[in-house]
């Protein structure tokens, strides 16, 4: 997925380079390239963030459980 994102940024960078002035180039790069790509990557990354959060919560639940052992200072 990142290869496609890099390719898209390359294409929009070349589009921006052909604009008449600097402001138009920067705006075309941001409007056609960076902003839509950031939104796309954020939306496509949502399931992975959810899986990561759930697995982290599961690990915290397992680590936080009391195993019944009584390890005092004298043991």
Largest sheet: none
- Judged by helices, strands and strand pairing, the structural class is mainly alpha
Mean pLDDT: 86
Give start-end ranges of low-pLDDT stretches.
none
Number of domains: 1
Question: Would you write up a description of this structure?
Answer:
- The chain is mainly α.
- The protein has 3 helices and no strands.
- Helix 1 runs antiparallel to helix 2.
Keywords:
77% helix; 75 residues
Provide a brief overview of the structure.
The chain has helices spanning 2-17, 22-44, 46-64. The chain has 75 residues and is mostly helical. The protein has one domain.
Topology:
Elements: H1 2-17, H2 22-44, H3 46-64
Helix pairs in contact: 1-2
């Amino acid at each position: 997925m990142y290869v496609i994102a890099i390719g898209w940024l390359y294409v929009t960078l070349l589009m921006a380079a052909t604009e008449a002035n600097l402001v138009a180039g920067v705006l075309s790069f941001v409007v056609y390239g960076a902003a839509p790509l950031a939104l796309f990557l954020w939306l496509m990354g949502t399931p992975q963030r959810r899986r990561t959060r759930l697995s982290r919560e599961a690990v915290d639940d397992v680590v936080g459980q009391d195993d019944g052992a009584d390890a005092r200072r004298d043991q």
